[in-house]
Amino acid sequence: MNQFCYGVVADRLNLNVEEFKRGLELGAFPADIVSEYGARICYNSIGKMYSNPGFAYKLVDAGHMDVFEHGHVTLMVDRDAVDGMRPFQSWFSNNKYASMYGNDGVVYFTASLRVWHSMVNVLPYEILLLLSKYTRLFDSMVETPLRDIEDANALQYPTYGEHFYENSHETSFGATVDLIKLHLPVPEHVPVPEAVFATFLVRGISRACSHQFVRHRLLSFSQMSQRYVDAMFGENIDVDTIEFLDTVRNNIVIPPSVIAHGRENEFVATAANSYRTYVQLRKAGLRKEDARFLLPNATKTDLVVTGNLFAWNHFLSLRDAKDAQWEIREVASAIGKFLTEYVSWYVWYNA
Ligand SMILES: Cc1cc2nc3c(=O)[nH]c(=O)nc-3n(C[C@H](O)[C@H](O)[C@H](O)COP(=O)(O)OP(=O)(O)OC[C@H]3O[C@@H](n4cnc5c(N)ncnc54)[C@H](O)[C@@H]3O)c2cc1C
Question: What are the pLDDT digits (tens) for 48-80?
Fold first, then answer.
């Protein structure tokens, strides 16, 4: 390998998320772990993490490339060498999702796996080899398993997998927000907001809230699928029991104002009617994707969301604000607290 290329591994994973710890112990790469986690959220199959070595290729084949927006790799290249990489440099600098920045004679290239993958045809061989040391996405494209070759020049800082974040922030309505990955590749004295990516796991928000969330086009989302995941988590449930009502209550977000107005039972009963028919349609052989048309906006969902500091700042300026709807405001507030704590050099909310 040439002298001028270095890998920069800068991911901090939340080791309270059991699957991340296990992945690192298994030798998986952070960028791949987070991408698979995003995909598993869609299919409600977190328990199957790492069980299928071909999982990434299946996702590529299926065109489910958005999950690779959660994992990032930053490479550092000597500035002199960058001149010899013109086509690559030009592609990279023209990609609005990629970030190129420099410091002390070196150039940093930060991008998600999706972006790196999209440029595969213009990647200099040295870059491709180096990438294959930080993700398995390029395994089939290099002739030698490069990560086994000792490269004395490869810098790896800071090492990943040593970081614990605070436990979840819990909202007043029971949803949880966890910072699950921070990609912080820049040296502290060269803050580049576009190159710092934070990924959150948000559980238990309503579909009404998630719809507002996904309107933010600069963020990347993987959301639990209502086509592949059954809304009642088991169709054998008896719809005429008290337990059914409890299950419905647990499956929906009930706005505090509904409770304050003493209308909670009515709210749950109306939702239960939809869920009851949902289960009956499923038993009659209808697909989840059609039965779900009946489910209320209150239905809970989980998602993984990634964005750079610029995108998060914009999101927070709109949603951690007094005009924002209460549910997304609480989620935004939790996200803002994590970001101000862990990316303290950034001045927030000045968008
Ligand atoms: C209080 C409130 C009320 C709302 N009410 C409604 C409503 O009634 N109906 C409704 O439909 N939506 C509503 N929204 C959603 C709102 O219209 C936006 O879709 C959402 O807030 C995302 O904002 P954004 O487009 O600025 O952010 P993002 O999509 O995250 O984009 C971030 C920034 O990137 C740039 N950008 C991204 N894509 C483009 C592009 N294609 N062209 C040019 N620039 C781009 C812009 O500078 C943009 O500000 C509401 C939002 C809020 C906060």
Answer: 999 998 888 889 999 999 999 999 999 888 888
Tell me what the mean pLDDT of segment 248-254 comes to.
96
Judgement on whether residues 143 and 262 belong to the same structural domain of the protein: no
> Is residue 9 located within the same domain as residue 146?
yes
**Residues 123 and 254 occupy one common structural domain:** no
Minimum-distance ligand 1 atom for the alpha carbon of 217:
29
Residues 141 and 21 in one domain: yes
Nearest to 325, CA basis, from 264, 265, 257, 262: 257
Judge whether 182 lies within some domain.
no
Residue 171 included in any domain: no
Question: Does residue 59 lie in a domain region?
Answer: yes
Q: What are the start-end ranges of the H helices in the chain? A: 18-25, 30-43, 55-62, 79-82, 86-94, 113-118, 125-131, 207-213, 242-251, 256-260, 264-283, 288-291, 309-319, 326-342
Nearest ligand 1 atom to the CA of 319 is 53
For ligand 1, atom 40, which residue shows the shortest CA distance?
A: 217
Q: Is residue 137 part of a domain?
A: yes
Query: Are 19 and 139 within one domain?
Result: yes
Q: Which of 40, 136, 292, 319 is catalytic?
A: 319
- Domain residue limits at 112: 5-155
Q: What b-and-e string marks burial along 237-266, b requiring 16 or more CB atoms within 10 Å of the CB?
A: eebeeeebbebbeebbbbbeebeeeeeeee
pTM of the model: 0.93
Ligand 1: residue whose CA is nearest its atom 47: 314
Q: What spacing in Å lies between the alpha carbon of 318 and ligand 1's midpoint?
A: 9
Q: Which of 212, 326, 333, 335 to mutate to test the pocket of ligand 1 (most atoms within 8 A of CB)?
A: 212
Q: Is 319 a catalytic residue?
A: yes
C-alpha 270 to ligand 1 mean position (Å): 32
Look at residues 279, 294, 309 and tell me which one is the last residue of a structural domain. 294
What pLDDT digit, counting tens, does each position of 27-51 carry?
888 999 999 999 999 999 999 999 9
Q: What total number of domains does the chain contain?
A: 2
